[in-house]
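Progress report, Aim 2. The chain analyzed during this reporting quarter is listed below.
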Amino acid sequence: MEIERKYLIEQPPQDYHTYPFRHLQQGYLSTSPVVRVRKEDESYYLTYKGKGLLAREEYNLPLNRESYQHLLKKADGIILEKRRYRIPLGDHLTIELDIFEGDYDGLILAEVEFPSLEEAEHFTPPSWFGRDVTLSGEYQNSRLACGPLSDAFS
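Predicted structure tokens for the chain:
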């Protein structure tokens, strides 16, 4: 079960680039249900995600490079590209700060995954977090892959 909240970020912390990051590229074979292929540095995955916004089922299966490239050609819409920085938050949480490139250059989102719904519902975000977009669904990656958003994020 994946339990996460997502925030639109206008200005990341000045030191975000000092944290470890990974290059991500991902495409969507289906958006309902969500079936995605992802390259994370030199690792490859096929992911299925169930319905939901705050909490939903998620299953990851490893792929090899050839399978990933074959499936990526079948993806619909925009292939998303971003750098994902991992910023520690407290003693057990991590902020995943996504700095988008390509079609969504200028878009910055932060996600925090939680061990329980209760903790997610009582979370107080850092002061630099912007609008909570978890329940809107408009900034889900599967939605972003369907086509350009308005210029509201730039």
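The two ends are 32 Å apart (CA to CA). The longest helix spans residues 65-72. These observations will guide the mutagenesis work planned for the next reporting period.
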